[in-house]
Model the fold of this input.
Amino acid sequence: MVFQLFVCFHLLCNITSFAKECKIGYIGSNCSSPCRYPSYGKGCQFECSNCSKEMCDARFGCLIPDESIDKDNTTLSEDSIQLIYVTIGLISSGFFIIFTSVACMFLIRGRSARHERSRY
Done:
């Protein structure tokens, strides 16, 4: 799909076209045409040079006959997403604990230094 943007500045206009990026393995103005053999991949820029038309996938290229690939399952599983959230939470908590500890050390040192100065 192509979008055109009209840019006008002091009565001078330029037309700039922006091409919508298609999903991997598809091309065309509305991104509905799969790559034609032997092409595959993003923008159909790669070639299936080592396999037949039947074994060339428009998105992934040459497929191994015995390989059981779930081509439609390209999203992360719910367990993977939960693991990512837990990992991010643990790392964030660790940084918070370190930051709080360092801040407390500086506060305690500052108070003890003022207390020492006030004695004399």
